[in-house]
Amino acid sequence: MVRTDRTTVPGLASVSRRRFLQSANVALGAAPFWLSAAAGAQPAVRPAPGLPAPRYVNTNGIRMGVYESGDGLPVMFAHGFPELALSWRNQIRAYPEAGLRAIAPDMRGYGLTDRPADAAGYTPTNICADLIGVLDALDIDRAIFCGHDWGGVPVWTMPRLYPDRVLGVIGVNTPAFSGRRAESSQPEQPAEPPLIVQTANYYFNTFQEPGRAEAILEGNVRRGLEMLFRRGWYWNVENMRRYPEDSAERTMDFLRMIQEGDYQGELFMDPAVLDYWVETFETTGFTGGLNYYRAGATGAPPPPTGDIDVPCLYVGADNDTILRPSSSDGMSEFIPDLERHVVADCGHWTQQEKPEEFNRVTLDWIGKKFGVA
Q: Which CATH architecture has domain 22-28+44-183+297-370?
């Protein structure tokens, strides 16, 4: 999961999450990344059940597995951590019924797609180049981009890097950042009191050291995913306010929560869907997904800034305790055509937890802005 508050990375100065994304993760240029020679040697992953048969696209030096369905206005979906194209299963089914073309790749590092080991290849700018290559391979000129969690970072970057390829943007839980605060001498003020007490064991920090998170997550893949894919528990604002400040929940110490195994709340995911997640990550491991967190420490140049001049929709969730809806405050200052919607009684996994509401809101917006759906 991406986050929007203050980040402390061992060996680095404490920086705000916004500045971290602005100045480290989103690069204006990317070093060349050659097609992985190990691509054919990677353990085979079974295509996701219930989705159309995938096609494979060579893009930006990697091979991506891409699911698509429908005709009409294209919508490109980008998932986050630790997710898969299957995260968009409810949209891949619903969007074509509304006259849209749904396109959902397993992102770099995940599932059917190549998993280069070098974290420098996982900057949002390089991820944008991956997605542009998919558009080119599918002979698509422009698309709406919809991204959740880490997938939200490149989709908000796309209209700044490739304005001629973007029709609109839907950011799910992840807000857009203007870059203006990074240029200002004024300190950032939190939009609301922080729920999380950050320590060296905050998940973003423990994900930095290669091998550390892998040892826990891959030691029992099912238990690790069951801890993350829940509703309630630490994905609930009122619960978080009650937890002691040194608790694993309040400090968002994911690795400790997995090790303690005292799970609360409930799984939101159908058991058969979880089975595929477990099978896939037992095959691929988690390093590819963790590299999105590690890419910020690779010295990427600062991101593009300025207004976003395409229609945009932000969809937040009232119980996302990391990506709070208030993190989207101020977006209208640099996105003239912006609408916002917050899904009630929903945690971090919005399009999976509340697919009916998510589809209704996004399809209504697409219909209003683009005359379809």
A: 3-Layer(aba) Sandwich (3.40)
